[in-house]
Design a protein that fits this description.
The complex is a heterodimer of chains A (77) and B (192). Chain A is mainly α and 77 residues long. Helices cover 69% and strands 0% of the residues of chain A. The radius of gyration of chain A is 20 Å and the shape is elongated. Chain B is 74% helix and 0% strand. The longest helix of chain B is centred in the last third of the chain and has 25 residues. Classes of the chains: A mainly alpha (77), B mainly alpha (192).
């Protein structure tokens, strides 16, 4: 079980911050909050690392045979 | 049969050039499109079928693409629509299970299980297989949004356009989808 987050900011702003979906003013506010809140900084590092993991899991390259099959789907001139 | 006029021949040649350009640009994006296809599919084979179906459709309907607009988003719109048409939406109803825990319960659970407090060390408890398996367990509607934003690196607005849903729905599905993903990861990495 988990205790409630000690900082509400994390819950609301960290995800859109990582998604680069905040306005410039909100970004500055977020950065200034991260500078001053060690709890959020820790969560930020974890969330950022987790996203890297998720992205890497999808890095399995496409099989060369599939690339060839896609190329063969091109319409004939 | 009447002979083709020079003007008609020029028009046909220009059309053929445009089509070849379109096909080459689409094929150059195949690796990026595949990453999303793999993320929304449960297996490599399913992702490969989906890619072939999507590219066959894209090549047939190349005239409906407006040059200069986002071709990757256009291709992914075809791919995600096909994926929905294939009936995966019906495979599992959207998860209505309440997710009461905070957004950080995965971190807290991993921290408790590893006894580590350094973020990188905590993450080492997760393997790539865990991520792939957890992603496959996220219901379709939520997974599509998570894959487009987290793996495809699309903005909320682009994801909304690709999936033809309002931006608010993208945000709520993303929020819920990420939580479901973390819940699945916690189960795989800590509870197993």
């Amino acid at each position: 079980m988990t205790a409630a987050d000690p900082c509400d900011w994390c819950e609301e702003v960290l995800q859109p911050y990582l998604d680069r979906e905040l306005t410039d003013a909100e970004m500055r506010e977020a950065e200034s909050h991260l500078d001053s809140c060690s709890y959020c900084r820790k969560r930020y590092r974890f969330e950022e690392g987790l996203r890297r993991y998720v992205r890497q899991a999808a890095l399995e390259p496409m099989a060369p045979a599939l690339k060839q099959r896609l190329s063969e789907l091109r319409l004939e001139l | 049969m009447s002979e083709t006029s020079p003007e008609e021949a020029r028009r046909l040649a220009e059309g053929a050039r445009e089509r070849v350009r379109f096909e080459e640009e689409a094929l150059a994006l195949a690796d990026q499109v595949y990453r999303v296809a793999r993320g929304v599919s449960r297996s490599k084979e399913e992702a490969e079928d989906l890619m072939q179906e999507a590219y066959a459709r894209a090549f047939r309907s190349w005239r409906s693409y407006t040059p200069g607009t986002n071709l990757r988003a256009w291709l992914l719109r075809i791919l995600t629509n096909l994926n929905i048409d294939r009936g995966r939406r019906a495979q599992r109803a959207p998860d209505q299970t309440p997710l009461e825990e905070s957004d950080y319960f995965l971190y807290n659970r991993l921290e408790a299980a590893t006894g580590e407090t350094e973020e990188d060390r905590v993450l080492q408890r997760l393997s790539q297989d865990h991520v792939a398996e957890a992603l496959a367990s996220v219901p379709h509607d939520f997974r599509d949004v998570v894959v487009l934003v987290d793996i495809g690196d699309f903005s909320y607005a682009d994801a909304a356009q690709i999936l033809d849903i309002p931006i608010g729905t993208v945000m709520s599905r993303l929020h819920r989808g990420r939580r479901i993903l973390k819940k699945e990861l916690a189960e795989l990495a800590v509870d197993a």
